[in-house]
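so my prof wants the structure for this chain in the tokens format not the other one, which i didnt know existed until like an hour ago. anyway here's the sequence
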Amino acid sequence: MAKYAAAVDQGTTSTRFMIFNEKGEVVAVDQKEHEQIYPKPGWVEHNPMEIWERCQEVIKGGLAKGKTQAKDLSGVGVTNQRETTVVWDRKTGKPVYNAIVWQDTRTDTICNDLAKDGGQDRFRPKTGLPLATYFSGPKVKWILDNVQGVRAAAERGDAIFGNIDTFVIWWLTGGPNGGVHVTDVSNGSRTMMMNLDTLDWDPEILRILGVPRAMLPEIRASSDVYGQAKGDLAGVPVAGDLGDQQAALFGQTCFGVGEAKNTYGTGCFMLLNTGEKDVPSKSGLLTTLGYRIGKQKPVYCLEGSIAITGALVQWLRDNLMLIAKSPEVEVLAKTVDDNGGIYFVPAFSGLFAPYWKSDARGVIVGLTRYANKGHLARAALEATAFQTREVLDAMNKDSGVQLTSLKVDGGMVYNDLLMQFQADILGVPVIRPKVAETTALGAAYAAGLATGLWSNVEDLRVNWVKDKEWHPQMPADKRERLYKTWLKAVTRTFDWVNA
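here's what i got, hopefully its the right format
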């Protein structure tokens, strides 16, 4: 009998395959990075076929490391970098263009043109989202408008669209030979084309964007059997699909109204469960789908999205070469006692929540001759904590619920200096679970629920175990003084592109 659940975790910089047992413990993991492509300033692309190759490699590697076979798996889930957009040929599987990554800002003009009629919140009542370069809809429009022959192929249903989850599931289930063309409600809600109430593609928005319905995937529940895998996972039900941040919410077992998590990855994403009600945001947050289990009612969330957090550490490593490996940033930051008056606002892709200013760009302010690379490293880490505080303030305002603690996950949560500063600047405890890679765990949970490895979400709650907790130690007056200066630094990023 199958005793494990697995997940393909396709992220912005790498792809992982993870296998979990019934207790939610890691049995095996294999991971590989893929190339980041920067054709022009503000443009970010991935090669979709390279991503699919990495998926196949890590599946093979994970099975080998776990000494497991396909028959040992009750199901496999997929989780993904959400708004990254792929259009490909249904008959061959070949992409018509590189994947346009969620950080990409080339659709700025499209978004500005759309905002001329109805403003930035034109689609918010239906989709919960502002007009922003972040989301998939404008990216699809860009491909249709700029890649020759694609629009006609899309209208015929030969060129099809998906976020990365859809592309991976299509290939997992056979690709050109019967691949299933689906997405789930969580990914659908990130396209700016799905109606939050109907959970289906919105005809009016499709017409405005000029996106043919024939190219769109079927929207399904997040925990549901979509089809059977082929290849190394032959016969395993593909039974879970969640955007990475919703998967982390699921993996953190935030199933109750008012429960929240923050994931520290390439970007930073805080989600608050608002239950079966979609709460409109007045504070620059996103109203989004959390998940849907089978035929149960959908669960909604408020989300605060921050574009650049872990990516800033990568930038210090790869562009400035201040460090050789990402974990070294903590060692460098500890060489100084504070930030030396430096604030680093990493608006490399504009500002996301709560500002939504795509014309902002990154700044380092407060520089003096006193400043050194230790201060720069510390300011880079503090930027993550300050941006999280901005999102939490907006969340408290929108929901009317004051968070008493924050569950955290993702790669940066092993940085003790950052986690302590995060608790200090929020003024609430920060809690790391034993399994911090909750994105893959959430997708595996969704697949295991759909295939009977777990009976209900209460089975999953039992698996959640606290690993470490940080409590605020900073005096309140110092916290507010630092935060006030941060907010001042953020204003220096505004309107840069048009200056």
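also thought this was worth mentioning. Residues 373-399 form the longest helix (27 residues).
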